Amino acid sequence: MQYANGIVDFNSEHCIGCGYCIAGCPFDIPRISERDNKAYKCTLCSDRVYHGLEPACVKSCPTSAIMFGTKEDMLDYGAHRVADLKDRGYENAGIYDPPGVGGTHVVYVLQHSDKPEIYSDLPRDPHISPTVELWKGVTKPIMSVALGMSVLAGFFHYVMKGPKEEPEDDPDPVKAHDARDIDKRGEDRL
Amino acid sequence: MSHSNVKHGILRYGWWTRVNHWLIAISFVLLVLSGLALFYPFFFGLTGLFGGPEPTRIVHPYIGVFMSLFFVIQAVRFFGDNLIRRHDVQWMKQIRDVLGNRDERLPPVGKNNAGQKLVYWIFLATVPVLLVTGIVLWRPWVADEMPVWALRWAVTIHAYTAFIAIITLVIHVYSAIWVKGSVRAMTQGRVSHAWARHHHGLWYDEVRRKEGYDDPGGLSLDRDVPSKRT
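ok -> structure tokens follow
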């Protein structure tokens, strides 16, 4: 869920621990807790932010390597840092804010933004996986409707064509077996 | 309970076959209900049947393993009856006659018709896929050890395969409702001679032959029938 301040986090009360978020995340971030079997990730200290504080990592960072603010401010600040790095010879310096996922809420200034893999395997061009699209996209309603249709198809077949009534034997065993004799006479199936 | 087939009919499914079938059937229905609940929020309400969303997630894979065990037993026991024969191809070509209830035009078939055999093979193909992909996704036991790409493929394949299996289940259940006498065969075991001959002529002949009635106009199988012919 997304809070009013823009931070995205799990609502643990609703989490059932299915792990679909792990399969869905292009960055392989969420993990299921071994203690309560619910999904967790960085909360960006949404509770602190709610009370007007900055996230704990920002607060405790001794060199101000981590900054917190509106995305606009952070991109501005990042642009300055990129320009500075380029002056110092890092030709490929840039901001990591991958457009394939509509940008991220945490952005990085990288010296070598042409090689994001060297920074703890940041994906080069992250997208929602096509398998996730196959599984979560139009598939769900289409499959659900198809299942419903198959049941209806059966029902209406019954209404239109009716059942195959059960061929019964005569309840009187003697008559039944005589009837079978007559049935079989002249048959060459065997 | 006092239907004449139950006493005088031909045994089509023995007690273990029936028990085995219904253990699978009950498990399968529970798997469908819990699986749909976890598949699409539209079906989320079904989690109430299992005591809530978390219990649903926990119980689904256990039911799956339970069903798979009995499915293996059934698949082995039914194997021989489901090999595709030439008359099955002919039967399938006449599927319009089958659906239109023009049974008299159909070729005689063995213990199972081509439709039943197809159901057998579809389940034989889908259940192992569901089992393997389901185990990959099993939390907390397995999924944590799996790479993300494996989880993504497993969850996708699991959904598609389940879709095929559920459609097949719908067809299977409808067929049982449609072909009168087949539900009693699977609950109480026996079918009328006329039913066997009408729907599964080759099987009927074979049963009669095995019982030692080589004469095409042979005697009844009923032990309690006073023999009028000698």
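Strands of chain A lie at 31-32, 39-40, 94-96, 108-110.
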